[in-house]
Amino acid sequence: MNVVCIGSGYVGSVTGTAFAVLGHPTTVIDIDPSKIDLLNAGKSPIYEPGLDQLVRKYIGKTLFATTSYQPVHEADVVFIGVGTPSKQDGTADLTYIKKAAELIGAYLHPHRFTVVVNKSTVPVGTADLVTAIIEEASGLKAGEHFSVVSNPEFLREGYALEDVFFPDRIVVGSNHERAKNIMRELYHRLVERVSYEEISKDFAFPYNPLTPKAVYFETDVKSAEMIKYASNAFLAVKISYINEVARLCETLGANVLDVARGMGLDSRIGGKFLQVSSGWSGSCFPKDTAEFLQTSRKYGTELSIVKAAIESNRKMHEFVVEKIRRRLKILNGKKIGILGLTFKPNTDDARQTQASVIIQMLLDLGANIRVHDPKGMEMFKAVHPHLHVQYCASAEDVAHQADGIVLLTHWNEYLQLDWKQMLSIMKTPYLLDTRNFLPKKLLIGLGYQYEGLGIGTEQEIDGGIMNQFSVLSV
Fold first, then answer.
1. DSSP code at position 170
2. Which of 249, 265, 334, 432 could form a disulfide with 454 if both were Cys (CB 3.0 to 4.6 A apart)?
């Protein structure tokens, strides 16, 4: 089938490359020529482990890239994967969706049936909006010449290729039988893992043929649109809950690592998304929860639990800053090193991260900030030019004359740092590990004043994420 993906961001690049790998001639369209030039040169326009290798192999064969919408004319399926950033009031900005729909309408073939797929995370009712725009731009009739369906993405940045080739579920929302049939045919190779033994040789992750097959779930359009928001909001609620439990654990002297593990052993709860942090952030959770809450308010059915999760998340950011202030007292003129700017490891996405919020609070208190991130510094600098911080080429540099170091993102690279050498150049040996990621016992032995979140000041971390102290450079 001829596939087109509008947008070359995290959704479009990964989705387009995946269908090309599966043998569908796929064209990625983006109005940014620099991104298209990268794709045509065999390079991914985003950082995603393993994506460069696939783009390099399939570009010019089954994967193509252009700034022109002409390929829409011959497409069987057109995915819309453009950005939907938040407006000031928290609602989704559909400017790019509307523009994509208008251009799709201008290039639709009048004598073939085309399925237009909303892959971006969009509010309930967006399929109707896109349908109306395409009808007006094309002069064609929905249901006869084209149909708009909802097929939300569930990709985790840093693990997007695993998620696209081995999804838990594929949700397709459509009220049109012909469109449903086309989508079933499109996803057949993925669901049935056709030729996976061969194509998996190019995967940057291990291929396990015993992994359960994806559930192909069909529903109506509005329910599909709702599923994505409801899913992300639920995960945000779960993270906010365990972070609140962590704050209570600190007060009562309990260990949140054991509490979370004990909770997760209950199959009704599960252990995923029970990892304590300085708060959830990133390109999805903040905007999706804000839109979901605003929609509920708009229609008089406020999602009070989502509202509470958003407020709790803000308090978690403040809690981290308060821990630093309690330890270092007056922060005016203090030098603080920050490790990690992206909202999670294995991505360069630094758009709406906990780091930006926490750094702003520290700057407001007069602190001088030095930062490092293995992949995210370029984007962080571009999207947060108002944050006057010093960017360090190496992680060790954040320790220079520092009154404290704060680990915000648990990159594996930070386990390999020469923590003994870093200690020797710090002014005050304070280390706040907001992910309970580093080996507390060893660091205390080196002379650090180590603090985590929700583990108290004297608790030992046994069986945590890192017990093999030998991997640290000491």
1. E
2. 249
Residue 154 marked as a ligand binder: yes
List active site positions. Answer: 284
CA–CA gap between residue 198 and residue 319 (Å, rounded): 49
Mean pLDDT of 57-70: 98
**pLDDT recorded at residue 282:** 87
Round to whole Å and give the CA distance between 148 and 132.
10
Rounded CA gap, 348 and 375, in Å?
5
Percent pLDDT > 70 in the chain is 96
Rounded Cα distance between 29 and 21, Å, is 17
Give me the residue label for tokens 């011959």.
74
For residue 284, CA distances in Å to 119, 181, 182, 353 come to: 14, 30, 29, 10
User: 78: which 2 tokens?
Assistant: 């057109």
Q: CB of 90 within 8 A of CB of 290?
A: yes
Domains recognised in the chain with CATH numbers? 3-219 (3.40.50.720), 234-471 (3.40.50.720)
Q: Is 30 annotated as a binding residue?
A: yes
Confidence tier at 296 by pLDDT (50, 70, 90)? very high
